[in-house]
Amino acid sequence: MKPEIVGDRVKSLMEKRNVTAEQLAEKLDITEEVMKDKLTGKQEFFVSEVIIITQLFNLDIKTVAEIFFSDKIGKAETENEEKMKI
Q: Which end of the chain is more exposed for a tag (fewer CB within 10 A), N or C?
């Protein structure tokens, strides 16, 4: 999966839940600069970060797979929006 696509999907989750990059960076224990790099695809999310994001947004395994591993574009954002909580 291209890091840019994953970054866009995570940004979409953040926007829908009104979570800032600063807030998510704090939860992931990374700097805002590193968070920006992950959201723009310059760096990939680590598995430990995927786990934290999964817990924060209360994502099911199917949604996690669609966001971080699927080549399908837009599916996670439209089908599972109501399942996301922070």
A: N
